[in-house]
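Please annotate the following for my students:
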Amino acid sequence: MITRELGENFLVQAGYLGLSITLSGIFGSVICGHVLEWSGKFKLITTILYIFSLIGTIAFAISLHFNSMEFLFVSSTLLGFFMTGYLPIGFEFVAEISYPQPEGTSAGLLNASAQIFGIIFTYTSTLIIDILDLFGPTSTILSY
């Protein structure tokens, strides 16, 4: 998405954006996991993380639309922190709500569904990018 919108000259910056998403996601996973352990409020923490992930996705889409690298790095970092920070909380939450079932079954089904939907969204978004424009796939993801 980044190289299509900003050009092939931004290939290195796209790699740095991926690095910022990954590094902030590592911190997000640790920090959000500790916050959940401290508070014990699964639904509240989950809702807060979803809201901030949505805000991060919107900020990412806007920064792509306006070609702002600074805003793109900030929005990518926030997106990585909250979206990746949700992963350990999501696994813990699904283990809690499906209690009689083993955690391995719940985690396996959660991972399988993430992979299936990831493949579907990747192919669908690629078609939308090729046919319409760049802003379409982000809007499609936001609508779900």
Residues 2-143 form one domain.
